[in-house]
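User: Fold both of these, please.

Assistant: Here is the first one.
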Amino acid sequence: MGRHPDFVPKGVIPAVLLPFHDDLSIDEKSFRVHLRDVATVDGLSAITVNAHSTEVASCTREEQRRIMEIAGEEVGNSLPIVHGVWADGSLEAARIAREAQAGGASALLVFPPAPFALGQSLQMVLAHFKTISDASDLPLIVFQYPLATGQGYSAATLERLFDEVPTIRAIKDWTPLVPQHESQIRALQSRKRPVHVLSTNSAWLLSSLVLGCDGLLSGSGSVIANLQAALFHAVQANDLAEARRINDRIYPIARVFYADPFVDMHNRMKEALVLLGKLPRAVVRPPLVKITAAEIARIRDALVEAGLLDTGAALGRSAA
């Protein structure tokens, strides 16, 4: 498995799921199958591991290392791997960055440290990212949270950050306000050294992409990478009719995946893969818990509406 040294974080980048056995241990066999399944989709730029979609907050250091190792073995020769950096402290973040690079990752997705929710300064943000960039020369992707969470970065902070940390090449933009999202896309992608904006607004992906994003990084790509790739390339080709046609298929899926409570989104994606016959079970680690039968039925209906599951198969799995 080799690193992809020329990788630029843009285009369609699914974030894969992490299957578990009933005893909550990692189901490596199912994970390998899932990785191969996602990687066969045409039009992808990379895949992401050790992020929200792989329940990174519930994984140990050793498990994160193993997840990267398996991903490298299964898809590393064909696709670059983006590795999440989830850590509350900068020294731990730097350790993860070093290990990810040594393991063959081609870029790092940097989550904001949880303490930033209690307040942050420009100097704190610069110190965090500089500590990571000192530990690894991989391209960095800044995960921009909504400002209301306290973990998002102001426009002024982002500008200084991009000026002083040249390995930052992209932003995964979770900005829920359309004017702010558009402003960031215009400002960042027009810089002398452009910073690519990857949408993570999967609940309203068409609207986000038509504002000019250079790509998307999404957990729902674990289920609908083919539709996301088709939508992105239709938008890039300015084929609005085709983009709207594809979005009509995505819409029912997005509606059920991103319902309240939002934290259950990847839980629901696992259930969708079970319904599609692509995972043997939908087990999540606490504090997440299995969703209700009524919600699983709504997911089944959405898959049928999207044309991903025929009615006969849906009824058969319902009776199983």
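And the second sequence with its predicted structure:
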Amino acid sequence: MEDKPLIITLKGAMDRATGNEMPTPESVNLDFVECHLRDRWLQFSEGGQPLAHTEAILAAAAEHGLVSQRSGKNVLLFDDGRCVGGLIGATPSMNSSFAQLIASTKNLTKSVLRRAGVPTPPGKQFTASDWDKALAYLEVQEGRRQVVKPADGRQGLGITTGVVTVDDLRSAWGHGLERSKSGRVLIEEEVPGVDVRILIVDGRAVAAATRIPPFVVGDGHRCIQELTDQLETARQSHVYLRDRAVKLDESYLERRRVSTSDVLAVGEVQFLNGTANLSQGGVAVDLTETIPADAMGLAEAAAAAIPGLNFAGVDILMPDLTSADSATVIEVNTSPNLLVHDAPAYGRPRAAADLLIRALVDQEAPKHQRNESVQPTPTAERAGDLVSRMRAIRFPRWRH
């Protein structure tokens, strides 16, 4: 299957908007699907890494002659008897504990990024007892769509998008708190854009992919439930998707005034939930060869803003995949799922686990023995000078 360049702007979404209404994440994702995925929505890429995140890293380590030693959930890696680091849970040792502290708390991440001049959506954190304050905050937003998420969440769990009304917030509030170990939720402005994950290895952007919420395409005969069953069957042919079930969120469908029994018209696209995270059934589309240099530079600048962060997945919302001018950073993950890049649903695998092991070994080698084994992609290479300029002049403060 030939993979075409994946480029999209907000034009289609803007055409659908009326009056002062702004494009929504759904409308931007819809443009992407209609332009690039609708005609092949059941034709997933072949190949890719069949192993889970940690196992893929250990397999890459073995290929480089490293010996692994497990200690509970952690792993030590040895190169000719010398420990070169390892994994703390799913996080490589090349990240400091301080970096993990910041990245694990969304409110701290936003504060650090904002002070570094990196654009991030406005938002506010609340505790479980702050319901009245949260309600007052929602009212001040004057109908602008919000995202409610656990302040310390992961894998897209506990996230509710499109929150506008009190009823929306009440449902999202409980959902978010249920998934928060700290008992805190973050209410954040929902900005339009395709969800792009950029992988940072040793401070450099080496791969990029967009993640799209699970969707079905109508044929004029099958209902949404039947199309979802058809999608589940097709996913069995893919090395990664076959082990991840699609989350069909009926409350999400209800807010969009559709039900699982509705029959979609030929070519009509319907998302099944509002979360692009792969654990919720989302699909990854490789963008490494087409992502603009300034987007790679933005991801590198976000990672550089957090001291001790050398390996990360930077999540960026891009309304225009040809430029990072209107992009915003929404999250920084210290243990990003490498299968986003090593086994995309559409596009080429990027051997991210191998790049990580090369960087880990090289980082611990004596300086005179380092061989710069991790090479940035051509796109990231072009971003090098841009990143230096970004760090020198800082990003402009964004107004929302």
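The radius of gyration is 21 Å.
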